[in-house]
Amino acid sequence: MNERIRITPIRVVNAEGEMLGEMETAVALRLAQEEGLDLVEVSPDARPPVCRIMNYGKVLYERQKKSGGPRQHKTQLKQLRLRAKTGAHDIEVKVNKAREFLERRDKVKINVMFKGRENAHHERGTEMLEEIIKSLQDIATVEQPPRMESGKMMSILLAPAKH
After folding, report:
1. Distances, alpha carbon 105 to alpha carbons 99, 121, 152, in Å
2. Which helix (H) or strand (E) holds 79?
3. Structural domains of the chain, count
4. Do 53 and 47 touch, CB atoms closer than 8 A?
5. 150 in any annotated domain
6. First and final C-alpha spacing in the chain
7. 66-70, 82-86, 141-145: which has the minimum mean pLDDT?
8. Is residue 72 in a domain?
9. Domain presence at residue 44
10. Which helix (H) or strand (E) holds 103?
């Protein structure tokens, strides 16, 4: 960049992208300084090397802005699975995990799976899901109430509450 370019002659491209042709490094540097810009080597492997007249500080700023900075959180759908026979403590652990997801602004789908004779007790699944809704009502809204899906699974969909 600028005075650190030692090779001469160089091929020069101006700020608008027009080819100015081959010239001495000192002449190209003077052109860049007259415009208040920098002379930056963009292709050092070419013969002669290609240099561009540009605002290098602006390029660095744009690159930093593109690579870093706060990123917007993309909402994901997280799923938790339970069984009709799941114990109270295990449900509590799943509720805490769901709370974590909801605090991160993710949606949570909770599935209660039924196998064999458990299919005769869908009311147990409904009770479990209603308990979960009550325990998470401070942080979540019910987007889809408890309903049967594909015969062997009951589910609800919770979304983070708007604050």
Report:
1. 10, 33, 29
2. strand 77-83
3. 2
4. no
5. yes
6. 50
7. 66-70
8. no
9. yes
10. helix 88-103
| 139 found inside a domain | yes
Domain of residue 132, residue span: 77-160
Residue 9, C-beta contacts closer than 8 angstroms, at least 6 positions apart = 22, 23, 24, 25, 48
Look at strands 19-23 and 10-13 and give their pairing: antiparallel
Q: Give residue-wise pLDDT tens across range 13-36.
A: 888 888 888 888 888 888 888 888
On the question of a cis peptide bond just before residue 9, with omega within 30 degrees of 0, the verdict is yes
Tokens of 101: 């997801």
Question: Do 106 and 128 reside in the same domain of the chain?
Answer: yes
Domain boundary among 45, 67, 89: 67
Residues 63 and 119 reside in one and the same domain: no
Q: What is the pLDDT of residues 88-98, one digit of tens each?
A: 999 999 999 99
Closest C-alpha to 133, from 101, 110, 105: 110
Q: Given 35, 67, 99, which residue is the final one in a domain?
A: 67
